Structures are given as structure tokens and as C-alpha cells.
Automatic annotation (TrEMBL), chain A:
One term of GO molecular function: tRNA binding
Region annotation (Disordered) ranges: 335-370
Record's keyword annotation contains tRNA processing: yes
Family designation: Belongs to the ELP5 family.
Protein name per Swiss-Prot or TrEMBL: Elongator complex protein 5
Subcellular location: Cytoplasm; Nucleus
Top-level taxon of origin: Eukaryota
Composition-biased stretches (Acidic residues): 353-370
UniProt key word Transmembrane helix: no
Keyword annotations from UniProtKB, A to Z: Cytoplasm, Nucleus, tRNA processing
Pathway stated in the Swiss-Prot or TrEMBL entry: tRNA modification; 5-methoxycarbonylmethyl-2-thiouridine-tRNA biosynthesis
Record InterPro entries: Elp5 (IPR019519), P-loop_NTPase (IPR027417)
Composition skew (Polar residues), residue ranges: 335-345
Naturally occurring in which organism (per UniProt): Cephalotus follicularis (Albany pitcher plant)
Classification lineage: Eukaryota, Viridiplantae, Streptophyta, Embryophyta, Tracheophyta
Automatic annotation (TrEMBL), chain B:
One of the GO BP terms on file: tRNA wobble uridine modification
A single cellular component GO annotation: elongator holoenzyme complex
Family per similarity comment: Belongs to the ELP6 family.
Superkingdom of the source species: Eukaryota
InterPro entries cross-referenced by the UniProt entry: ELP6, P-loop_NTPase
Stated name of the protein: DUF2348 domain-containing protein/Hap2_elong domain-containing protein
Pathway noted in the entry: tRNA modification; 5-methoxycarbonylmethyl-2-thiouridine-tRNA biosynthesis
Matching PANTHER family: ELONGATOR COMPLEX PROTEIN 6
Length: 370, 263
């Protein structure tokens, strides 16, 4: 699946369609989204270098790592970085995102150096400017020739901290609709945002890859963190692919982390079997969701005592309640003293009606004429 | 009889400190986040790390941002651990910034509000720049209480995150480390504790101090969980490892041990 994502990004946009877009989303219980991001980036880079992909260069918008980190990363993965000037550009939103260094330079305590592959963005709140810088960098890559480039944004979560949802949606849509952009992918930490924000970003992407811990019965997220760490760096990798005709394919595989990077193991090579883990074999829903379980726990069953904290007095049909209580205590004082606790082992007897006297000695059949 | 301080070794091993020092490397810890609770105050970890960093490698320089206690407090504690902070401060190995009076005035514009933090960042940066080149990589920035920083910034979490981000850029630029302490439970009531999550995403190493899950015990005061997310040093990297310890706070030292290794 990870492969098919990379392939889709490699193939890029179809004529007259939006660019292929991928959301990578993770949670604190399985915080390996950045590893997936790096994996996708390096795969795409090697496709670009081999000339196999539609895009001819990639623009990385770096929010959480420095530009040099990405250069080192690609070098470690054995990708030719010397030629990198020709196919990679980094918009550096990491070094000085809100212009503090600029403020300090004015005070004269800092100096700055320039770089060829990276361009500094000093105000990440100005998304219009950012959009035009991305496009400029991309156009710089492909030159005058008609071609395409890809865009990688390493954290939409950080963007969301600085700008509003609508303006970010606008930026991403503009990029997707831009003629020169062949594919675009971004990373999102879904727990940091409202559900609707995640949904908006997922609507805008043709693929969603989400990382989940292997064992995710919903307890609190805090204990999730501990559980996944016990299992080691492993997890489930869910992919949702959206076709143009509206068909949605859901697949999943497992990933594990190694020193060199992230690895994926598909559960089965046959396509049909991939669904096995997701589509239930029975048509009934045998498991309960957490909410359903909660609701079930709240239902008060008819035979349960419903007085809150108070003893329940049940009318036995023949005496007034207070009387029967007095009598009961009078009769059972001895047993109470031995038993110690009156609530244990008590038998409550309901009489049907008052018609029949209790313990009458008369023969019930004596009026019969036998 | 156990050697004094040998129990601290288990924590050091988890962090890989010994290995880095053997190779003469700085503490490439990245961002270390220590989370504690009301029941288990983890400031002893800060003291331990402070002492360790000052006593082991003479190149280490500590920039200590004190939001909760004055210098005399730390001096007294570290003296008991056998480390004289006054001497280190005079030798410029400890830069102690008393931030208890930091106030970010609540002005009309956001600018005035963040100016205090910008100035603080500038001060840290200037300190690092002023160091000789061979010592620039051996800087450890310590923040003794992020939640009080939040108070100083009038509760503006965004500015704190910006500040932490800029400190993160320092760790990338100079390979220095950032150690900070925050309290987990003060965010527990929020619907989505995004601030502490943001910090956890930022952190390369997460150390959690919690009360013992099984309840109170006389000889164990709490448990530590050390989660190394992204440490990479030398050839071996200890990625995504989790270590659990129990600890017992004594008068002058803290004992750390693996669960079940002491009866």
C-alpha cells in the first residue's frame, strides 16, 4: 500500500484534474507520521531522479525540521544530493517562522547566511506570500520548460497554529489546482485539532494514510501511549484511496521501524485477502463500540434496586409497609444477630392477593363433591 | 553495599549519556521533556541532570531558566549533591537566568506581549554565540517549569510554543540540548490537552514521573518512564525504546531501580 501511494504520487495528475494529494495522519499513540513522510519523500525523490515521475522536482515546505535535516536525510537514503540543486527546493519555515530573529537582527545581535536550495520564510502567517513563494520555487526548478513539480508540507499542524483553517484550505486548494503541481502531500497530527479540521483536510486529499497502534481498543489515549511503546515501534497503516468515480478503497498493512527507516509488511499479497482484516466476515456487528458499551452500562435493569442509597421497600400485598417492617424486625431479631447483616440472604415473598389467607389449614379440595 | 550513585546509572543508560561522553560527544539529547504530577515531583531529575552535566564534561555549559525557584534554592540542593553552583557560575559554566520576574505586559498588540520571550530567546542565543567555537555544541538549556512560563506570558500558549520552537532551532543549529519540566495533570481537565501534546510531539525524549500504579508503597515512591523517540548518536541509535524504573527519594539522593529488582 505504501508502494501504491508512492506510485500514485509519482504518476501525478491527470489532464484536467486536480493534483494527487495525500494526507498522512498520526496520533500520539503512534507518532510515526514523520517517518512515513520521510519515506514518501525519499521514494518520490528517487523516482524524480530516475526520471520516472511526472514531476521533475519537489518543493519541501519545512516547518518542523531544518533544511539541512532534509538534505542529510536524502543523503543517508543514498540519493544523489549533489545534483539536488536541480530538483529540490526547500521553503524554510523552520528557522524563523514568526520573525523573531528578524527582530533581533534589528537589535544587532544576529547575522545571517544565505543558501541556494533553501529560501527563508519569515512570516508563516502570510499564506498568500507563502503560496507564491512555493510556486516561484517550483517554477525555478522546472525552468521555462513546461513541466510539473511536487509539493511536500511537513506539518499542517504547525500551519494551523499560525493561520486559520479556511486560509489553509484555500492555500492547499490553490496548489492542487495549479497547473504545474503534479502531486502534493502533507503531514497532520490529528489529535491536535478538531475533528472537522481533519475531515476538511481529508476531503481535499485523494489519499489518506493514517497510522494507528496495533492494539487499539479504546481506553484513554494516555494508556495508549504506554501500550504502543511496550509493543515497540510497530503499528497499523491504513490507507484510503479515493477514485475519481467516487469509489473508495480501504486497505491496511503493518509497519515497523528500523534504524534505517520505516518498513511495511503487507499482510497478504493477494488483493482480496487484504480486505479480510477490515470487512467483517459476519453481517452482524458482534462487537460493541466504546460508546455503545457506555450506554449499555447506564441502562437500569428492571430488577435492580432503583432507590439511590435507600433501602427499597416492596409492598407485599397484605399489610401496610411500616407494619410489615416492624413485624419483620421483631420476628427476625434472632436471626439478624447471628447473620450480622440483614441485607444478605434475604428472601422477599410476594403474595398474589389478599383473597387467600396465609397458612390456612383447611383443605382446598373439601368443597368438591367427589 | 551498593555504590553511591550507581542507581542513577540505569537512567543514564536509558538516555545513552555514558556512551556519548566516552566518545567525547556532547549530550545529543535533543529536546527532553520531563512530565510530573502533583504526587510525584520530578524536579529531582533536573537537579540530577544539572549536577551530572556540570561534573562530567568540562566543556558543558548550562543555561538555566529559573521560573520557579531562586538561585539560592538550587545552590542549596546541589551543594548536598556535592556540586558548588557558585563556583560554576563564576567560571561561566552555569548561566543562571532568574526569570521569576519576567512579565510580558498585556499590551494592545500581540507584539508587546511576546517581546519578553523574544528578548529571552535573544539572550540565550547571545550567550551561545559568545562561547568559544569548541564549546558551542556543549550547551544544555534547562527550563525548570514551563507552566510558570505560561503564567509569565499571560497564558498565551502560542507564544510559549513559538519560544520552544526557537529553542528547537537552536538544538538543530548548535546540536545543543533542551531539558524542560512541565506538569501533566494541570492539563488533564482540558477537552483536548493540545499544549502538552504539542510539547510531546516536539520532544525527542519523554520522561514521565508518576505515582506507582499499584498504589502507595513504603519503599517505592513512584515510577519513571523514559521514552526515547528520536535519539541518534554515533552508530547505535536507541530509537523508540521504553524503559521503566521505580524510584525512591532519600534525604540526599534518589535511588532508581528496575521494577522488582529490590524487595
Amino acid at each position: 500500500m505504501a508502494e501504491s501511494i508512492c506510485r500514485t504520487l509519482r504518476n501525478g495528475r491527470l489532464e484536467g484534474e486536480h493534483a494527487a494529494a495525500l494526507t498522512i495522519k498520526d496520533t500520539i499513540a503512534s507518532p510515526f507520521g514523520f517517518d512515513v513522510f520521510n519515506h514518501v519523500l525519499s521514494q518520490l525523490s528517487s523516482f524524480i531522479l530516475a526520471g520516472k515521475s511526472q514531476s521533475r522536482g519537489v518543493v519541501v515546505v519545512a516547518f518542523t525540521r531544518s533544511p539541512s535535516f532534509y538534505v542529510d536525510l536524502l543523503k543517508r537514503r543514498g540519493i544523489d544530493v549533489d545534483a539536488s540543486k536541480k530538483w529540490i527546493r526547500i521553503l524554510d519555515c523552520y528557522t524563523d517562522p514568526v520573525g523573531w530573529k528578524d527582530m533581533l537582527i534589528e537589535c544587532g545581535s544576529l547575522s545571517q547566511e544565505a543558501s541556494t536550495t533553501a529560501r527563508l520564510c519569515k512570516d508563516v502567517r502570510d499564506l498568500d506570500k507563502m503560496c507564491s513563494s512555493i510556486v516561484e520555487l517550483g517554477n525555478g526548478l522546472i525552468g521555462q520548460v513546461k513541466g510539473h513539480f511536487s509539493v511536500a508540507i511537513d506539518s499542517v499542524s504547525v500551519m494551523l497554529r499560525h493561520a486559520s483553517m479556511t486560509s489553509i484550505a484555500d492555500l492547499l486548494n490553490n496548489l492542487r489546482g495549479h497547473d504545474q503541481v503534479s502531486s502534493i502531500f502533507w503531514l497532520l497530527h490529528s489529535e491536535l485539532h478538531e475533528v472537522r479540521v481533519t475531515a476538511v483536510l481529508e476531503y481535499m486529499s485523494s489519499m489518506v494514510a493514517s497510522l494507528e497502534p496495533l492494539n487499539c481498543s479504546a481506553n484513554g489515549q494516555r494508556s495508549e501511549l504506554e501500550r504502543v511503546s511496550l509493543l515497540g515501534p510497530k503499528g497499523k497503516f491504513h490507507v484510503r484511496l479515493k477514485r475519481r468515480n467516487g469509489r473508495v478503497r480501504v486497505m491496511y498493512e503493518e509497519f515497523y521501524l528500523e534504524h534505517s527507516g520505516i518498513n511495511f509488511t503487507s499482510l497478504s499479497s493477494e488483493d482480496g485477502l487484504v480486505y479480510q482484516g477490515l470487512v467483517p466476515k459476519v453481517q452482524f456487528n458482534l462487537q460493541l463500540s466504546e460508546k455503545e458499551r457506555d450506554d449499555r452500562a447506564k441502562v437500569v435493569l428492571p430488577f435492580e434496586h432503583q432507590g439511590i442509597g435507600k433501602p427499597i421497600q416492596i409492598y407485599d400485598g397484605r399489610k401496610s409497609l411500616t407494619e410489615s417492617v416492624n413485624e419483620a424486625t421483631a420476628v427476625s431479631t434472632e436471626t439478624l444477630q447471628t447473620a450480622g447483616d440483614s441485607s444478605n440472604g434475604e428472601i422477599i415473598y410476594f403474595r398474589d392477593s389478599d383473597d387467600e389467607m396465609p397458612d390456612s389449614d383447611e383443605d382446598p379440595d373439601d368443597d368438591l363433591d367427589i | 553495599m551498593e555504590q553511591k550513585g550507581s542507581s542513577w546509572d540505569v537512567v543514564e543508560q536509558a538516555l545513552g549519556l555514558g556512551q556519548m561522553e566516552e566518545e567525547g560527544l556532547p549530550w545529543a539529547l535533543g529536546v527532553v521533556l520531563i512530565e510530573d504530577r502533583v504526587e510525584t515531583d520530578a524536579s529531582f531529575l533536573l537537579h540530577q541532570l544539572l549536577k551530572r552535566s556540570l561534573s562530567s564534561n568540562p566543556s558543558n555549559t548550562i543555561i538555566f531558566l529559573a521560573f520557579s525557584h531562586p538561585f539560592s534554592h538550587y545552590d542549596r540542593i546541589l551543594r548536598k549533591l556535592g556540586c558548588n553552583l557558585v563556583v560554576h557560575r563564576e567560571n561561566n559554566r552555569l548561566v543562571f537566568l532568574d526569570m521569576r520576574l519576567l512579565q510580558c505586559p498585556d499590551g494592545d498588540e500581540g507584539k508587546t506581549r511576546e517581546s519578553g520571550l523574544v528578548a529571552l530567546y535573544g539572550k540565550i542565543r547571545k550567550t551561545i554565540h559568545a562561547l568559544p567555537d569548541d564549546k558551542k555544541n556543549f550547551v544544555i538549556i534547562m527550563i525548570d517549569d514551563v507552566s510558570l512560563m505560561e503564567v509569565a506570558a499571560n497564558g498565551s500558549l502560542d507564544h510559549i510554543l513559538d519560544f520552544l520552537h526557537y529553542c528547537h532551532t537552536l538544538t538543530a543549529e548548535f546540536k545543543c540540548s533542551l531539558v524542560m519540566l512541565n506538569h501533566e495533570d494541570i492539563y488533564s481537565n482540558m477537552e483536548r490537552p493540545t499544549f502538552i501534546l504539542d510539547m510531546e510531539y516536539l520532544a525527542d525524549v519523554l520522561i514521565k514521573a508518576e505515582p506507582l500504579v499499584t498504589g502507595l508503597a513504603t519503599d517505592v515512591h513512584g515510577q519513571l518512564m523514559v521514552l526515547t523517540n528520536k535519539i541518534c548518536h554515533g552508530q547505535g541509535s536507541s530509537r523508540n525504546k521504553k524503559h521503566n524504573f521505580h524510584f525512591r527519594v532519600k534525604e540526599n539522593r534518589v535511588e532508581y531501580f528496575y521494577p522488582g529488582s529490590r524487595t
